Amino acid sequence: MIRLHHSNSSAAMAPHIVLEELGLPFELVPVDTATGAHRQAPYLRLNPNGVIPTLEDGELVLYETVAILMHLADTHPEGGLLPAMGTPERAQAMKWLIWSTNTLQATLIAYFYPERWAPDHPAEVKATVQARIRPMLQQLDEVLADGRPWFMGAAFSLVDVMVFMLSRWTRHFDDHPARGFPHLGPYLQRVLARPAVQRVFAREGLQPFV
Ligand SMILES: N[C@@H](CCC(=O)N[C@@H](CS)C(=O)NCC(=O)O)C(=O)O
């Protein structure tokens, strides 16, 4: 049985969506961040970074959201969540997955923990993050401008899961949340409408708001 160490409305949303998209049996293991469970020894033994998510799949213990997504897609190729190995489409999907986590997600994290960057200036950190995120959202919007249904084209993929989750993290931005971009906004509604995403929102107790 696959076990996903999870908290609601966190980066665990991405593997949660993928598990639902693939229709796999899995167990959600709640990690209570309010009490700091992610920084205590039992969880740190699984993930020494003390961040969520972590996946257990048999003997395999895996952290890093995108690595978890790729593992699930690779072990369930029938789900078609990644293009075939060795193709230009696969290379582009890898590019976007890596960009999503090492550029978009890494920048967004400072918005949620601004005191870690400048303890005395959290408002300035949040403002800086929002300014830096804006061209990244613009970059996503430009890809979608040709009217493609999903980010990589005709097929829904792991890239959609990351773009959707991280776009949602901008929902409380002061001026330019992702949903306000002309192509990104309707696209996010398409992802939100997927039955697997709806099940995740219901289970995590989230409002249908991106
Ligand atoms: N690069 C990691 C980042 C994960 C991450 O930052 N998770 C957040 C939740 S969205 C977390 O656990 N934060 C708790 C903390 O930093 O104290 C990944 O993608 O798995």
Tags for this model:
210 residues; Glutathione S-transferase Yfyf (Class Pi), Chain A, domain 2; 2 domains; four-stranded mixed beta sheet; 8 helices; 9% strand; globular; binds glutathione; transferase activity; Glutathione S-transferase; Glutathione-S-Trfase_C-like
CATH class of the largest domain: Mainly Alpha
Number of domain units = 2
Which range best describes the helical content: under 10%, 10-25%, 25-40%, 40-55%, 55-70% or over 70%? Answer: 40-55%
Radius of gyration: 17 Å
Poorly predicted tracts of residues: none
* End-to-end distance: 31 Å
CATH topology-level fold name of the largest domain? Glutathione S-transferase Yfyf (Class Pi), Chain A, domain 2
Reading the helices and strands in chain order gives: EHEHEEHHHHHH
- Structural class call reads alpha+beta
- Which percent range describes the beta-strand content? 5-15%
The CATH architecture of the largest domain would be Up-down Bundle
Shape: globular
Tally of helical runs: 8
Strand order in the sheet with the most strands: 2-1-3-4
Query: Hetero groups bound?
Result: glutathione
Mean pLDDT: 97
Organism: Inhella crocodyli
GO molecular function: transferase activity
InterPro entries: Glutathione-S-Trfase_C-like, Glutathione-S-Trfase_C_sf, Glutathione_S-Trfase, Glutathione_S-Trfase_N, GST_C, Thioredoxin-like_sf
Keywords: Transferase
